[in-house]
Amino acid sequence: MTSSEQKELLDFLSEVPFFSEVERTSLLELYTNADSEQFVRDNRIIEKGEVGDAMYVILEGKVNVHDMEHSYGILSKGDCFGEYALIDEEPRSVSVTALEDTHVLKITTAHFSQLMESDKGFAKGVMSVLIKRHRELDIIQEQLASSKKEVELANAKMSGLIDGAMDAIIMFDGNFRILLANDSAKSIMENQEVLQRNILFFLDDEGADLLEELVKSEQSSQQNKNTYLPKIVKVIGSDGKETLHEGTLSCYSDEKEAFYTLILRNIDDRLTAEHKISSLEDKTEYLQEEIKELTNDHGIIAHHKSMKEVLNLIAQVAQTDATVLIHGETGTGKELVARGIHAASNRSEGPLIRINCGAIPANLIESELFGHEKGAFTGATANRKGRFLLADKGTIFLDEIGELPLDLQPKLLRVIQEGEFDPVGSSTTQKVDVRIIAASHRDLLQFSKEGKFREDLYYRLNVFPIEIPPLRERGNDVSLIANAMVEHFSNKMNRNIKKLTNEQKKLFKEYTWPGNVRELQNLVERAVIVSQNGAIDWSLIIPNSLPKSVAEVQTVEPDHILTAQDMIQLEKENILKALKQTRWKISGEKGAASLLGMPPTTLTSKIKALGIVRPV
After folding, report:
1. CB 441 within 8 A of CB 330
2. Backbone phi, then psi, for 476, in 5-degree steps?
3. In the predicted structure, residue 548 carries a pLDDT above the cut 70
């Protein structure tokens, strides 16, 4: 060892508290005859219960002093442990495990005893350290009590306090005066001068009442025992900080006096973790439901001008937080547009939560949207987070918003205007940051005029309207989408299906597709299933879209071929008949749309496309 290495080593050992008063020559003798040992991570250095034969000084690394899963503290470079083995042959009271690769200096009892006998300087230095420690213990003992019983009790608890327990340990007497508190206890009480103060002053009312009841129970039973606190206790520090704890109360008493030790473990972090886990479980449950409900996402295929305009609107509104109202017939892909807006927005990293307002019973939809407290109604056995809370910092898609019960609409209006709501059965207002996208196949403005939908809610939703054209008005898009779906289902079912021919594309284009893209998807999937040798007879798959009047003409004139213009004229005449019969009423049970078997929005589009005008 070089002189510089020797100096560095002696400087290091001089900083070790146990040897701080030992002369350097004695320290060199100590090191020369000591053993240097290496322990890898998770290696046990000391096992609780075994008889010790050495003490250790940490040269490099970190160790955990613990009893099974309970940790008393972390020691690192310069710390020492196992000193009691030098003066007695009692079993080890704790275990010590390496937290990382650790290098220690092992000083055996035999070597230590030899130095104590042969080296007066060494013995003098060690004794100085022990005397200093003893004086510190005397000061603490004097503060605890003057009687022999108090000193004995203090000594019994002293080792746990000095070892720096992570839990808060508070000893108090029958009058609730604090006699002893470790650093963890002083930290949560935010007061370094807690001795002789009443412990009840540091608890909330409920916690103070609980502690008084437990102490009274201990006094009446006249038994020394440990009691787990049946409730979580809130500690209020001198500076107002509130922390939640679970703990135990121990009683030690004789015929004259009783003393109590309260051990508190902070559970704030655990409660936060449980809250996060609960939130993740709720989101996982919701996403599992979503996976079951969602159909295959083939993307938005848009070659037609009308659908390209929809994509342009998505790009315009995505980067804002504006509320969007999507209108379109059933099956046109309103949810796909909503997902496109969310994906292109600044909220794309947040959740997109979907709820179909028409698929949930009216008595449950408020709970689904806004959540409920335990016991709010029959069957509410636990707290539940609503979809709005799940969508915080993200987007919520309210499909079929026209089906939302009228009495619930003011609550939705409040969320849009103020970003807050009250869960069912709760008086606590929840704040949320949610972007709202709504969709409906109904004419909400007409609904509002009929008193079926709040007019103010309609205008709050209709900040940025997007109209999705029906599939029949998108030209060749129907064939492009059909080909994409054929490819998807072919791969899924391991079949080789040919793309559509021009004749087949004509069949797709001529059909009116009342169910739009959803109907197309179901039809294509069915066709692939029944396909034979890679071929599909689409004329047998696509429903007959000819109006009844055309079928009658074909019955009378089976050889007559109708032109495209004939078809348009027949459809126009058929619509005119329905309008005249219903006195030009379009929607409702006795409206023309109901007679024709099509949605009112579809009939309105056809009237406009065919140039039908109501006579004056």
Report:
1. yes
2. -70, -5
3. no
